[in-house]
Write a structure and sequence with these properties.
Elements lengths: L1 E6 L4 H15 L4 E6 L10 H16 L7 E4 L7 H8 L3 E3 H10 L5 E6 L4 H9 L7 E7 L11 H16 L4 E4 L7 H5 L7 E3 H14 L19 H8 L2
Parallel strand pairs: 1-2, 1-3, 3-4, 5-6, 5-7, 7-8
Helix pairs in contact: 1-8, 2-3, 4-8
Length: about 240
């Protein structure tokens, strides 16, 4: 299976983190293709960032049309997933959508951890589409720029561990680590956690594998043609096809 791991911001570390977790979970069964945007925000934190990143995501996906079997959107806010699903005609999954769906198979009272108070409004708008408040019992926000940079993650892991302990104390029976930079930490920190942990890398890899196994049952239907001007040639041609 050929999985496009798509990152619509310009931070290569982000895509490498998620792609590494997909490879760790799926092994030789998957060929993971990393794609990072060449325009737009360095990190998506606001609605304006997301608006630009949505264009970047669709443009980047168009360049890989016909070359991949599925797409995992490696961005916390799952931008453009519906558009890319229709554009490429293959299964497309966002990491936050995957993590929430997976957590609902594990527990009934979900706690969330995200990074950066500035991103909470965007998170809330994004996650509203998944009706995440229906089973959310707590949400912890941690502030650490180290989460988005290369280097030692000991401090980040300590903050996450403490946040999950607070979630458990407040009644959560499963925790979702929101954010692409946390990919891999559910498996790393989970064995010592008081409640099960889920991150988008783990859940995304397993669910993309399941969607691909379903074959035509999980394949989207044809795109309604669109006419564009002054966007990239691959996107213009792909969107206009009949």
């Amino acid at each position: 299976m050929r999985i496009l791991c798509l990152n619509p911001n310009r931070t290569a570390f982000v895509i490498a983190t998620v792609a590494a977790e997909i490879r760790a979970i799926l092994g030789l069964a998957a060929t993971v293709i990393e794609a990072t945007a060449d325009f737009g925000p360095d990190v998506i934190r606001t609605h304006l960032d997301e608006a630009v990143a949505t264009h970047a995501a669709v443009d980047l996906a168009a360049r890989h049309a016909g070359k991949v079997d599925a797409v995992l959107m490696a961005a916390s806010y799952d931008p453009a997933t519906e558009a890319i699903r229709a554009l490429l005609g293959v299964p497309v999954l966002g990491i936050s959508q995957a993590a929430i769906a997976f957590a609902r198979l594990v527990g009934k009272r979900i706690g969330y951890v995200s990074a950066g108070a500035v991103s909470v409004p965007l998170y809330r708008d994004t996650l509203a589409r998944y009706d995440f408040d229906r089973d959310r019992v707590d949400w912890q926000v941690i502030e650490t720029p180290a989460a988005y940079a290369l280097g030692d993650k000991t401090g980040v892991e300590t903050m996450l561990t403490e946040a999950v302990e607070r979630l458990a104390g407040n009644g959560a029976d499963v925790a979702v680590l929101l954010g692409e930079v946390y990919a891999g930490l559910a498996r790393r920190l989970g064995p010592k956690s008081p409640i099960p942990l889920v991150d988008g890398g783990l859940a995304g890899a397993l669910m993309i594998e399941s969607l691909l196994s379903a074959g035509p049952l999980a394949s989207p239907r044809a795109l309604v043609p669109s006419r564009f001007e002054s966007v990239s040639a691959p996107l213009t041609a792909l969107a206009a096809r009949d």
